[in-house]
Amino acid sequence: MTAQTVQLHQLEVIGYADVLPAGKGPAVVPPVFHDRNDPTQCFVPPFRIAGNWLVDPQVVSFDEIKELALAERVTLPLGFQHPAQPDWQMWIGVDGAVHYEPAKKAKRNLQNLYREHLATATTALRAGKIDKAEHHARIALAADERALEPDALIAVCHALRGEQKHVAFIRRAAVEAGHSADTFEVLTKTYAEMVPAPACEIRLPAAAEILVPAPNSRLKAALMKFFDGNFVAQVRSSKLCPRRAA
Amino acid sequence: MTSSAFVEVTSDKRGIGWKLISPAKLDEHAIKALRPESAEAALGTAEFVFLYCGQFRYPETQVGFLFATVLEKDRSDDCEASPFDSGALHRKSTWPDTSETAIAFLARHTLPVPGYREYLAHLLHFQFASPADYVAQNKQPMRPDSIGLRPKSPAVENDPRLWSFEIRVRNEVILSAPHLKVLFYPRRLRREKTTLDFLVAMEGHVELEQVVMEDDGDFATLQSRCIDYLRANGIV
Questions:
Q1: DSSP SS3 for B199
Q2: Among B57, B151, B220, whose Cβ lies nearest the Cβ of A48?
Q3: A60 contacts in chain B (CB < 8 Å)
Q4: What does DSSP assign to residue A155?
Q5: Distance (Å, rounded) from C-alpha A207 to C-alpha A141?
Q6: Rounded to an integer, what is the distance from CA A88 to the centroid of its chain?
Q7: Is the confidence metric ipTM above 0.85 for this complex?
Q8: Alpha-carbon gap, residue B26 to A183, rounded angstroms
Q9: Which end of chain A, N or C, is less surrounded by CB atoms within 10 Å?
Q10: Residue A208: band (very low, low, confident or very high) from pLDDT cuts 50, 70, 90
């Protein structure tokens, strides 16, 4: 049934229209509603929630919801049942835990997750643990998909592996999403400078070269090139140099 | 064909590249087991990849694909259509002759591709107030379904899957030009490195439309974006 509205107070949330096992979160997910007045029917996306109303939901039978869960199309966590509330949001944690709470609290919790994982990613980057940095930056990105920082950090991780196409794609996607290309480049440069390479020579288009001081002069410079304003970065060299005789 | 594929993101990099593969192939490659009680197993359609000719109607959809009509011509020998979603047929709907099995009902309503378009044109003309209502989110046919399909559960008054055309393509659909035209993806999907690899591989070959989801996280935004694209490009 379409073009209908249902009052939230007659509904209960019994699951969500996605499948996110542990490690795939965090993510905001659309709830699956069960009608308390008519237990044979459930409501699934697409729908909108306006105040106390669920607007234009797709109606499916309770039997079909159970089938969709078996087919791993929706998730019905065992024993999960919560009265539907206006201005509440459902989200899945990194560990797969289901949260249904006031939207403001959910946003706050997701922002906390974002900050926590971005900080961990930054620390890992400073320690040269690129895979770990990327992993946590991806979690931060999932916690706040509008944020630019995780994107920039992930781009640096790809750049360090010489994956130029990935870097260019992330940059373009960020700009398409409304971010400033300049801000992206400033952020990527900031993150690139955190990488404990002995010296990073960074070339900007038609701009002066910046030499980042090396913490260990025995290592040869890892050259990272930023050119054409497109932030196509590539590690060109990172080799040990022999110690000079005293 | 202005179809969108609403199968799960089944990206198989083995072999010849990224593609959508059928439930039988998913099972064969041990990616996802084919459940005996599933609609595909029960109706004998597990060999096919399922696409809609129209808007996607499945409650759980992550990515929208827009395919070009040339797919129908190139794959006409191993393609078939029905004026409803066969998945919704299985145990979710009923029809006038209840003694007729779902398999027989589906077989009786299976149409050739692209020949089914003649029937689709009639349906758009006679069943809807405006042809564009066929893909609109909150519209439904203004006349009773001529096939006689109706939801099995009395709680469900109308199910768009019962009047959305389905195109079934045997085995797999390669995700590349000229068959694939546009890919609509939620920004958050880039959280997965595999998805990013896939998007990077697609870039330059097909049009990529990034969708920033609304706070409620449902796919209404993705759905709207796909329809807006069709309208903006004069496809509907």
A1: helix
A2: B220
A3: 59, 92, 153, 156, 159
A4: H
A5: 31
A6: 21
A7: no
A8: 43
A9: C
A10: very low
